[in-house]
Amino acid sequence: MPDYILFWSSLLNALAPLSEDLSTLAAAGLLALDYLKKSTPSPNAWRVQQRSLVERAKTPKADLLLMVVEPVRQLIERSEGQTQKP
What we know:
Layout: H1 3-37, H2 44-57, H3 69-78
Helix pairs in contact: 1-2, 1-3, 2-3
């Protein structure tokens, strides 16, 4: 197998956890926005689960950080019961 295939394969494997975290964060952020839009408090159990995800996503992977972690964390926290102003 050519070296470049092994290089790209190992690089892609290293990025897979980062991609998974980004996808999960995006889904959490969209759901938090939905709670805010509907002025419905998010369930406590959901917030606890999302906080765990946020903590995991803060960890660098393949020497990269997801810059959306903090904004998504803020959305999750605000979805606790604050309503969105028109």
